[in-house]
Specification:
Number of strands: 3
Structural class: alpha+beta
Distance between the termini: 29 Å
Number of helices: 1
Helix content: 10-25%
Number of domains: 1
Shape: flat
Low-confidence stretches: none
Strand content: 15-25%
């Protein structure tokens, strides 16, 4: 991707396993979905995190969908 005035650049998401959780609602409250993954699910699962940040797949967009009805898949990379 060519350098641009928007600061948008290309990154490759490496292949691998992820835990995926769907967040429904405003992105302002996505932490309510993310924190329990790390606090509760991960320690109980026996899984380990991969050295890669979590990422999102936005299934809804504004203004077509009101923010309180957005659906966003949260991907947390696992070893």
């Amino acid at each position: 991707m060519a350098p641009n005035a928007f600061g948008v650049h290309e990154r490759i998401i490496p292949a691998g396993r992820c835990v995926v959780v769907r967040h429904v609602g405003s992105p302002d409250h996505i932490g309510e979905t993310i924190y329990p993954i790390y606090r509760d699910w991960l320690p109980a699962s026996g899984e380990e995190l991969r050295d890669h940040p979590l990422f999102f797949h936005y299934l809804s967009v504004y203004p077509a969908t009101p923010q309180d009805q957005w659906q966003t898949d949260v991907y947390v990379p696992l070893k």
